[in-house]
Amino acid sequence: MRAHMQEPVTLTRDCPAVHVPSGETGTLPEGTLVTITQDLGGNFTVHAGGNLFRIAGDDADALGREPPPPLTLPDDASDQDVEALVWAQMETCYDPEIPINIVELGLIYDCRITHISENERRVDVEMTLTAPGCGMGDIIADDVRSKILLVPTVVEANVEVVFDPPWTMDRMSDAARLEAGLM
Q1: Which backbone phi and psi does 165 adopt, to 5 degrees?
Q2: Under CATH, which architecture does the 7-63 domain have?
Q3: pLDDT tens by residue, 100-134
Q4: In the CATH hierarchy, which top-level class contains the domain 79-179?
């Protein structure tokens, strides 16, 4: 996992991408020279043509990279094991412009895991954003949802973005404050 880098790469195929910070989706064509500026949580932030784009980990092959491996849990996994893996998955979610995960930023307000059946679970998350007008809000929430759904036995994930209470830097962990240069 590399946060800050400047690695030029030529896309090996057409690749879905999200413009940062607007959140608009599009496609970067095969042969486009991009510079990977952030490689965190299995997703990539790239610079191309004077703009930043987020490329999902599922499209890592277009950058000559391997996609993230599938998640596993032992057959006798407890509810605590599942909850730990859900939180670990949320820790792989990043704002493409901030190299600090959303858990350390204090963006997760609530996470509830309930059984739907003996071997199926639903996860409900309330989260916020550092700024209410963030164009990447839906993209970040979808990233949280899709990564939670990779957890074995989780068959439903609901992620709600809320702004009450408003996020403040007080919600950041000490590690996040240190990374951001606030300590």
Answers
A1: -80, 155
A2: Roll (2.30)
A3: 899 999 999 999 999 999 889 999 999 999 888 88
A4: alpha beta
